[in-house]
């Protein structure tokens, strides 16, 4: 039914005999305001114009009845405003009666709902390691919902401070309203680099080289010993800082004389065939070119539990590209990864990553930023390597039966920010706390400070070391003199700040199981 009011705004005419003093002269009674349009009585009329008997009683002998008969010839809403749908159940809108207002023009990526969820509690700002050491950095709240609202206006440029975000993603974990902060940061950073950064500037060239580490690592791996020496040669390091803005204090990681994929090929691939237990290993760039021992440990541990390991063709996860606003580069790599990993999923495999930044990229950043066929399936089937075993295997029982490693081990464990964001902050400590001969001490919840490529920029180096200072102190206070983490760049920072040898939890698991 459609609600109507009379055209003259009243439902019934009062008799002059009923009026109080002054009303017969047309003067309003003091203290009693005139009834507004929305306060006036209404009657209901169905779309066919027939007035129900009950509603018409008391109105037939008044001007309201005449108004209702007239109103029945047209559809109306409360207050006599014509309905945009013509008073029927039809969803077709009459353009002349409907005036849409789009406050924020929509696009391929509409983050309006997320931005509106922010109520400025500043939890993200207080959790941001960069904001803690950099007084000029406005923090995640500005870089996220506030900047997004501003940049929706066509004449507003992205603030350059977006390049100071380290992409640690701690703000996502801190937000009580689930505002997609890191997604907003990635989108804004990508637009800044694409539209505002000078493509011939030293900063852009340097960032592009850092973001595309896989390309330089692949070239270096052709002559690993020569490349490792040349990139850490004193004069070369000095020149890199002066010309490219890469801090001379940083030591480049050594390149493996045999990459993981070369080892995998020489080994003859998987040693276990089991169509009921399959995993596709996403090793990432660093485990392939720099620390193949991590990939080997992953393969041996999973084969110990009866898994058939697949190693599909793959490119970089895109994490360093997201951090540097190179979204087109990241998409090209993502297209290859999604295609090959989804094919493995179709063959019954789940996807396993030994780097927490890689697993975070595949399961969160890909579906947030790209619209690729199969991308949601990939996110659903992606796990971090230790996480997957803790879900599907009796790790505690296996470790108890194995009796622990041959030698006692004491390790200082740091949980990477990208592990915390996936709820994996305590997994290594919980896995090894009851293993004979193993002591794992958590060195706190502080950020390591390197945040991928952030700490590899000359202008950010001192800030990255200041962020990591708390972690360094806790590591030095720990009983052990060996560090442990799942993130390769956190491992660089831990070694750089303490001089400790750093291992991956998979390596300790391999030793403890005797795999």
How would you characterize the overall build of this protein?
With about 525 residues, the chain is of the alpha/beta class. Among the domains are: about 110-195, Alpha-helical ferredoxin (Fumarate Reductase Iron-sulfur Protein, Chain B, domain 2); about 395-515, Rossmann fold, CATH 3.40.50. The chain contains 26 helices and ten strands. It has helices at about 55, 65-70, 110-115, 125, 130-135, 140-150, 170-175, 180-195, 200-210, 215-220, 225-230, 235-245, 260-265, 285-290, 290-305, 320-325, 325-345, 355-370, 375-380, 385-390, 395-400, 415-420, 425-430, 460-475, 490-500, 505-515; strands at about 1-5, 45, 280, 310, 350-355, 380-385, 410-415, 440, 480-485, 500-505. The longest helix is centred in the middle third of the chain and has 20 residues, at about 325-345. Residues about 1-45, about 55-90 and about 100-110 have low confidence and may be disordered.
**Assigned CATH architecture of the domain at 397-513:** 3-Layer(aba) Sandwich
Strand content range: 5-15%
Structural class: alpha/beta
- Uncertain segments: 1-45, 55-91, 98-108
For the largest sheet, list the strands in their spatial order.
4-3-5-6
GO biological process, one term: anaerobic respiration
Protein name: sn-glycerol-3-phosphate dehydrogenase subunit C
Pfam families: CCG (PF02754), Fer4_8 (PF13183)
Keywords: 4Fe-4S, Iron, Iron-sulfur, Metal-binding, Repeat
Topology summary:
Blueprint lengths: L1 E3 L38 E3 L7 H4 L6 H9 L40 H5 L6 H5 L1 H5 L6 H12 L18 H5 L6 H15 L6 H10 L1 H8 L3 H8 L2 H11 L15 H8 L10 E5 L1 H6 L2 H13 L3 E3 L8 H5 L3 H20 L2 E5 L2 H14 L5 H6 L1 E3 H8 L2 H8 L6 E5 L3 H4 L6 H6 L5 E5 L18 H17 L4 E3 L3 H11 L2 E3 L1 H9 L2
Parallel strand pairs: 3-4, 3-5, 5-6, 7-8, 7-9, 9-10
Antiparallel strand pairs: 1-2
